[in-house]
Amino acid sequence: MTGENAQKSLAIKNDKNNKIKSGTADTVQQIIIYTIVVLFSLMCLLPFVLVIIVSLTEEKSITMNGYSFLPTHWSTSAYKMLFSPNSSVPRAYYVTGVATIIGTLIAALITFGAGYTLANKQCKYRNALSLYFYIPMVFSAGLVPWYMISKSIGAYDNLAALIVPSLLFSPFNMFLVRNFVRGIPNELNESARIDGAGEVKIAFSIYLPLCLPVIATVALFYAIGYWNNYFNAVMLINDKEYYSLQMLLFKIQSELTAMQHLAVGTSNSISPPRESFKMATSVVTMGPIILLYPFLQKYFVKGMVVGAVKG
Amino acid sequence: MNRSEAVKTKQNLPKKDLPKKKTNVFQELWRNKFLYILAVPAMVYVFVYSYASLPYVAIAFEKFNYKTGILSPFVGFDNFKYFFQSSWAWLVTRNTLVINVVFLIFGTIFAVLLAIILNEIKKKKFLKITQSTMLFPYFISWVIVSYMLQGLLGTENGLINNLIANFGGDKTNFYSTPSYWYPILLILHIWKNTGYTAIIYLAAITGIDEGLYEAAYIDGATRMKRIRYITLPLLMPTICIMTLMSIGKIFYGDFGMFYAIIRDNSSLMPIAEVIDTYVYRTFKNTGDPGLSMAIGLYQSVVGFILVFTSNRVVKKFFPEGALF
What we know:
The structure holds two protein chains of two kinds. Chain A folds into two domains: 2-80, no CATH class; 86-310, MetI-like (MetI-like fold), CATH 1.10.3720. By secondary structure, chain A is mainly α. Chain A contains 15 helices and no strands. The two termini of chain A are 32 Å apart. Chain A is globular. By secondary structure, chain B is an all-alpha fold. Chain B has one domain: MetI-like (MetI-like fold), CATH 1.10.3720. Chain B is 68% helix and 0% strand. The longest helix of chain B has 33 residues, at 87-119. Chain B is globular and about 75 Å long. The interface between A and B is large, with 118 and 105 residues.
């Protein structure tokens, strides 16, 4: 920064005419740049603000004036309804939370194990193994086999259906871990071996702690994947007991649409879909992501840059 | 190349510890049993979900029956014929390709522009706050995005229709007018992903040698010239790699997005039904796995050719960017 300022003052001294021109043009450009950035940020932020405001709006106000940033009447009744005893949201919250935590832990461990092995130079077949993991990344047989396999291994209408199919392991994340481990000097491995450390100890007491940054990144990829996934539930869950949050949101919306189109009452299985209730459910669904956001963003940005640029 | 050389020198170094003899498969497996065991869970998982799914491909050539499973009666290419003779084949292929190409072109332009603009911002705190805000939509599920969209475009309560009504216009039913949806889908895509993609480009820009800019500045290059003659050319390799990688995925529609936003709205299907949602719909609605497997296989084969080719091209021209 200071270096740049010095350069600038130097340039200004050198050429007085140029100074005036570039000076005004520069300020105008600066203003344009900052305006664009602020506008785009607002575009990204305002929809969330709208959701939060609508979730706190009284239902009558919505039916009379529609969605608004400045509602006439405020109310927390949507949130009360959300946490009332016959609401299905707490159960969905619990199911999604359990699936996310268990899934992320197992997935991160499996991914670390495979990535570590692939990076290890002792392992003679590591290139063959890489190929083995690479092929599924370029060819997948699609939905039908996926569905049938999930069903035949018992991942259907239970918690396993939300954890196991397609979410538990991603070769992409594994290559991320592999590349990270490759960056750790091999001498570490050798000296630990000379000091008499066993393979287990080397992997879990030496490499695992060193790999924590990349494991955190990968775990966050998985956790976001689990939390936001509704595909597994759409495909493999019929039992309402195992609806994940996203699935519940999806269903509430569908039932509302169906109601509008057919003008008939919905089944009473899900609480009456009201606008503020819908938005309140969205808010609590986004809750953990908002809370963890600073942490999340830090590791995500790191991991993304490593993964995207270095492959 | 480099790696195998490195391995050779490594093997030369600790001569005393490693047995020099050539080992066979079982000796190698036994010697490094722990390492292989670590990789076993991932291998099993990939086997179950990828390699074991290959026999199911046969379903595409069968009149599927749940009792006989994979061994249902063979019908040749009937399922494919049925699909390619229907108007859906062209429709879903076109939609998938058109939407992905539009997303790719505009997505890249916006992300590169945003990255360049962000790079011009020197106030660190301002940059951090705005960047965090722009990245946030990326973490939100498409289901919630569909709620927000309803809040904006809904016919009864939607914000935009309220504005229209306030100014005395007639309310528009966005959800039954397909022509609005190319721009809407594009805006959604850009809104959700630009913050994310821009970070990758911004990282590439940050990697450019600062000395180049300083030299250009002293020589009197304006901001625009610096962007035009330094940033853009040096960013080109990254843009090419990212674009090629995306071209590989051009035959796959984003199911999470389209199914959450469009759902079962049949009036929007002519422009927004993509291969992935169509495979899902045939599977759920007709209950004929043979037909949806055939469509899925069509997608997989074309998709494979595209992914494979794009990876090869990346590897040839940008070796450091290739995944494998």
